[in-house]
Design a protein that fits this description.
Layout lengths: L1 H34 L9 E6 L4 E2 L12 H4 L4 E2 H13 L3 E7 L2 H5 L2 H14 L5 E9 L1 H7 L4 E10 L6 E2 L4 H7 L2 E6 L8 H4 L5 H26 L3 H10 L5 H6 L5 E2 L2 H12 L8 E4 H5 L14 E8 L2 E2 L8 E2 H13 L3 E10 L1 E3 H15 L4 E10 L1 H6 L4 E4 L4 E3 L4 E6 L1 H7 L24 H26 L3 H6 L5 E3 H7 L4 E2 L2 H11 L8 E5 L5 H5 L4 H13 L3 H8 L6 E5 L5 E2 L1
Parallel strand pairs: 1-4, 1-10, 2-3, 4-5, 5-6, 6-9, 11-14, 11-22, 12-13, 14-16, 16-17, 16-18, 17-21
Antiparallel strand pairs: 7-24, 8-19, 15-23, 18-20, 19-23
Length: about 600
Amino acid sequence: MLQFLKFVLATIVGLAVFMVLAFFLFVGMVSVATSGEKTTVKDNSVLKLKFDRPIVERGRENDPFSNFGPFGEGSPVGLVQIRRAIEDAKNDPNIKGIYLNPDMYAAVASYPTLAEIRSALEDFKKSKKFIVAYSEFYTESSLYLASVADRIYLHPEGVVEWNGLNASVTFLKGTLDKLGVKPEVFKVGDYKSAVEPFLRQDMSEPSREQTRSFLTSVNGHVLQAIGTARGVDVPQLQRLADSLTVREAEDAVTHKLVTALAYPDEVEAQLKKELKLDEKKKVEYISLTKYDKAEKESTEKGSFDKRIAVIFASGEITSGEGSDEVIGSDRIAAALRKAREDDKIKAVVLRINSPGGSALASDVMWREVQLTRKKKPVIASMSDYAASGGYYMAMGCDKIVAHPTTITGSIGVFGLWFNVKDMLNDKLGVTVDGVKTNAYSDLGLPTRNMSETERQWFQKRTESIYADFTQKAAEGRKMKVEDLRKIASGRVWTGEQGKQNGLVDELGGLDKAIEIAANMAKLKPEEYRLRYLPEQKPFFEEFFGTSSDAAETRALQKHLGVLAPYVQDIRQLKNWQGTQARLPFALEIR
């Protein structure tokens, strides 16, 4: 019997080893097969931009799975890669136009991300090439993107969701009450509403006030852009949203939100006319992924000895290494040092897309910004979010550039600890006991109640960090501290509002920030090249390493759909303990 079990165990181990080796062999074959693959762009081609994957700031270069069956499904595409493809297509004589298909991920993308793509498309139109958009379903955000097109087509049975914007916050107090978890909260400022989901079941009046303010600002920008592109005045667009007038597909045509109704084959027939193709010939589409691999003339003409470094910082802020989706203070600090010490790099653009996080980690990166700007210009470029800890990173830069719809400000901090004593005792029957050498040796232990002395200690520490935050922000913005604090107190602003109150210097995207950096470094457009930092890890190291969190997030989105954000809210609670500088919890604008 023992011998039999040995054989069974050996067989199981052998099969496991074989499967692992087979997987690595398979991955290696895919990598080799795709690494040398080049795409030829045929004459009279159309670049097809189908937004069916999540959009991140910077996608992974040379991802062997990006276009390979189920492995590529859901893998993110970089904003950098999208913009680069559009710019290349503008100058490519084989590309005659762009077919824009704003699918699911364009419908839920943030407006600053869409604004970057929209700006690139507007520049593309200078080539006199066409842009045609088609979708079965347009939201305000996907129509914002599609409105740049020469013609916008909607499926005859399709829908245009035109009912205005909504910002929602998820509240967890009821969940914590049911679990027996008591939050201990310490904050500064009326508007630091990030802690409200743990204390309330609805929005406070200050939170409602600031949310209404920045949402109105975002909506105004969106309506103005769409109205200008479609030839409809803003008051009329507001009336359409208030009355739910756009119910049928024909209504969208009547009110000029789209150009015409058409089935996909009819859109293709129009494209054939545009391309002067015979009806029997097919349109030569080329996808973003394939076009990225195509051989084409580089648009970068500058010297390798004159660089502008673009440092990407995306995600919540934590101490440690981080990843492409999480801002680790060690990783970003190292990138800033690398840019500072490299004489070929003449200026730095810090591209921030973060709702905030650890106050300590934010300060670590702020210090590196200060050291770097002593040697060369440092410009902050704000993406979707650059708030709280994200603003902490930006405030020490020479200039701050933001999109009109960027969510920024939220200058404030809070402390958060969870007391799980009742949950362990009452729900699970677990008790905790111990000994200590001093009165407060177990300070912050989550299995006991805090004393009033301990609460005062944490509150004073929170106030001290806020005082330091606002002092440094005031110095960076060249404002008096008392004036800075009038627009701080945790209040959230849009980039447009930030420009008005002094938190932002210029409105624009990444290109604007690069332009300012080049001017400050006295570089002409044709003189420099871009260098992207931090350097990405080799694909397989990232695939089997720190990317697991991102993969898990995408898996949740795929399998749980609209429920995924709520599950993620609970999962992320582990990152919230300690002193934080971050946005209101789970803020969504739709």
